[in-house]
Amino acid sequence: MKFLLNLVGFCLAVGAGLYLGWPHIKDHVPFEIVAANKGEAAEEEAEAVDESEKEAEAAAKKAAARERYLKATGKVETEYEFKLNQARVKGLLVVSLSESKEAGTASQMNASVWPDGPISGRVRFNQEMGMEMKRALVEVVKHMSIRHRDWPEKAGVEVAFEEKYSEKDGPSAAVACALLLESMITGIELSEDFAVTGDMNADGSVQPIGSVAAKIRGAARKAEVVALPSKNESDYRDIMVLHGVAPLVSVQAFSIETFEEALDVGRADRSDAIAESIAEFALVQDVFAKKGANHGALLRNDKVREKLEHIVSLAPNHLSARVMLEAASGRVPGMLSLAASLKAIDDTAASIIRLLDGKTKTIDRLGSDDISASLFELRKIQSKLDPRTSSYCTSLLDFGRLAREWKFDRPVNTRQADLLAEEIMATADRVVAKIEELEQNPEVVEELIQ
Questions:
Q1: CA–CA separation, 157 vs 181, rounded Å?
Q2: Number of structural domains, the chain?
Q3: Which of 271, 304, 327 is the last residue of a domain?
Q4: Residue 78 confidence (pLDDT) above 50
Q5: pTM over 0.85
Q6: H runs (alpha helix) in 148-271
């Protein structure tokens, strides 16, 4: 009964509260209900404050970390974006063939921006690459980060080769990658007639690469202007020593020491001096390309020499004009560099060198023309080799001559055949000894590793 009376009293109080206004109701609500509501409200308010404080603390930590990063890298906060979403340039590559031979090509390279994608802030190739090429790309990215402090971090870049299914390695595409990034960051267009090769350090210095002759051959089919490291100038001169002036007029070559020089030659809006030097050398190319042209006589022609001198005055790093002018003045070396001499020997005598391990057993498996062809090519270049490689070349010629005798004129007499086999073995040992002698020569090693 008491419970019912209390309930009735509460209902009357509620009714009176509705009549008199809500503020009066709370005076008649049981204490337990009021306390519970207040507790829940206070708890929710505390949770909201705590969550807000956590968000503020996380934001402060993130801002502090960002500030430390910017201070350490010298960068500035920016909403910087790439000026171009794509860029293209040709890179000079080589494909290894049998018998130490190589085929050069000018491969179209493309770079594309991935905005807010899975590679944000990174640069990567679109296929698996060898470690040398990966390390070269790291140096390129370092240089770009130094060169452009507002390097776009909210997007990634993917670099692709025209032949995306073939394996690639080596650092020679570094300068090409740097040009692609520079083009997208600054909006500078790259020339469609241009191809480039060269390794590069983080400071922008261009480093030497290999297989210059093959790359020049490949470039001539797809490009009109190429840039190669200045440290490879001796390799370029070796082309003239071996093959004459024809390869030099097949494509215009510029030497580059720095990334900035590569950009000067590769950009579509070249300076007036570089553009004029290219146009002037094209006239020289036309003269040399005429059927039956005597290249030696043309080099001695006063008008041709004047034209070459003018080109060099416009662009001192126009390597084709400079080397041709040296040849016209009789200043091109008459022999190959040390590195080129060793490569020429290894390339021309590949089938003979392959016999050194198997000796007479391997000789029997050779084709009829393999040894003869190698001997012919080796004799043809012998007079152009660096003197330090002379004894190595001579020992290979001796070994090849005996190998050919074994193959085509082996003695019927068993004793004489055994003596020839012994001579072949001894000559092979002398070849190996000459190789080791070169490998242990400090002067030779120092020159090769420069």
A1: 8
A2: 3
A3: 327
A4: no
A5: no
A6: 174-186, 212-222, 233-243, 246-250, 259-266
